[in-house]
Design a protein that fits this description.
It holds the Pfam family Amidohydro_1. Its cofactor is Zn(2+). It comes from Amygdalobacter indicium. Belongs to the metallo-dependent hydrolases superfamily. DHOase family. Class I DHOase subfamily. The chain is α/β, with parallel strands linked by helices and about 400 residues long. The protein has 2 domains: about 100 residues, Urease, subunit C, domain 1 (Roll), CATH 2.30.40; about 280 residues, Metal-dependent hydrolases (TIM Barrel, Alpha-Beta Barrel), CATH 3.20.20. It contains 10 helices and 16 strands. The strands form 3 sheets. Strands 1, 2, 3, 4, 5, 14, 15 and 16 form an 8-stranded mixed beta sheet that branches. The two termini are about 30 Å apart. Bound molecules: zinc ion. The site of zinc ion has 6 residues, from loops. Zinc ion binds next to loops.
């Protein structure tokens, strides 16, 4: 089946121009000018994207879908629906489910159920330590995905962390690290994050292992990442939309929301290339759990609007740079054939309207959970539809 998407502003990490795409089944097979494929329109499905912007769908390497075991907060179906509504077609799920995902069998069980939904691509990370207890390493060699993580907890034992990095390097895996030193947590000063980042960059350099640092949030931690990169350490630096957008805000999340100076440092880190990727840390919680002090927020359905407003509109970062942070780097790390609007890539795409403003209404979320500090705030840009493997899997309802 052929599909023509015409009259779009096409944006990816390198491209920003008016044009059209020709799709065959699940793949992009050609790109051209705004009406390049008009001769094919009689035999193709035609989508006129006049006035709208077509981007590669987003990839989130840091999400919690709580399935199995905590499905009153989220499950694979509602998580996938929230992802699609946010413009995402691929997510990497953290291992802090019940039971903890610490074997390839548990990974396979989640990914088989996810595949049966036929909505998005779901990758389930294996934990770094058995039951995420920080005592014994899992079997890295059998992990079905490239990333392993004990996200939600730091690994306190220095020698075990070093051994984990050696194992990761030996098995071609990357550890995704939650940078929070329990000696200093709960962390208001930044020391919990900064002491852990200093340790892990030192150990990663010694083990010659690539390392993915989750949710870097302070200017000092970012500076350490910058220096480590200059010294040849293979570090992938993640920031979240909430740490970029919200300063001096008491909303409970780990790491906490920081100062305006820290936010500006992260934005500068994006400009300079110190920041590699944006992860949402989508962390659904029920109202009761949140009231009892559970940290985190749901991020998939607000990420694009928040990032477009804060980075592109307010800080003049290009939409191509945002596409690189949201789509290309994640696709590269997971080895996905998506992340560009070029022939040969999968037709995993999202159409966005950059002209409208949207007030965040958690009651409209597809997620089971509504915990967000963005409620009631207004941002520019919204998702109109999301396509996975050539098929539109989610479309915004028009309010009439
Ligand atoms: Zn974390």
């Amino acid at each position: 089946m052929l599909t023509v998407i015409k009259n779009a502003r096409l944006v990816d990490s390198e491209i920003d121009r008016q044009g059209s795409l020709l799709l065959q089944d699940e793949r992009i097979i050609a790109t051209g000018s705004i009406d390049a494929f008009s001769a094919l329109e009689a035999e193709a499905a035609v989508i006129d994207a006049q006035g709208q912007t077509l981007m590669p769908a987003f990839v989130d390497l840091h999400a919690h879908f709580r399935d199995p075991g905590l499905t009153y907060k989220e499950d694979l179906l509602t998580g996938a629906q929230a992802a699609l509504a946010g413009g995402y077609t691929a997510v990497n799920l953290m291992a802090n489910t019940k039971p903890v995902c610490d074997t390839s069998e548990k990974q396979a069980a989640v990914m088989q159920r996810a595949a049966a939904l036929d909505l998005i691509d779901i990758y389930q990370a294996q934990a770094i330590t058995v039951n995420m207890q920080g005592e014994e390493l899992t079997d890295f060699s059998s992990s079905l995905t490239p990333l392993l993580s004990d996200d939600g907890k730091g690994i306190a034992d220095d020698k075990l962390m070093y051994k984990a990095l050696e194992q990761a390097a030996a098995n071609g895996k990357i550890l995704q690290l939650h940078e929070e030193n329990p000696e200093f947590a709960p962390d208001i000063t930044g020391l919990a994050e900064e002491t852990m980042v200093a340790r892990d960059l030192t150990l990663a350099a010694a083990a010659k292992a690539p390392v993915y640092l989750c949710h870097i949030s302070t200017a000092k931690a970012l500076k350490m990442v910058e220096i480590a990169k200059q010294n040849g350490v293979q570090v992938i630096c993640e920031v979240t939309p909430h740490h970029l957008a919200l300063a001096d805000n008491p909303y409970k999340v780990h790491p906490p929301l920081r100062s305006a100076a820290d936010c500006q440092a992260l934005i500068e880190g994006i400009r300079k290339g110190t920041v590699d990727i944006i992860g949402t840390d989508h962390a659904p919680h029920s109202e009761a759990d949140k009231a009892a002090g559970a940290p985190g927020l749901v991020g998939l359905e607000t990420a694009f609007s928040v990032l477009y407003t804060v980075l592109v509109e307010e800080n003049k970062i290009s939409l191509s740079k945002l596409s690189q942070l949201l789509s290309l780097r994640g696709a590269e790390i997971l080895n996905l054939e998506q992340g560009r609007v070029l022939p040969g890539y999968k037709a995993n795409l999202t159409l966005v309207d950059l002209t409208v403003s949207r007030t965040i209404k958690p009651e409209k979320f597809h997620s089971k959970s509504h915990n967000t500090p963005f409620a009631g705030r207004t941002y520019r840009g919204e998702i109109l539809w999301t396509m996975h493997n050539g098929k539109i899997k989610w479309r915004k309802e028009t309010d009439k």
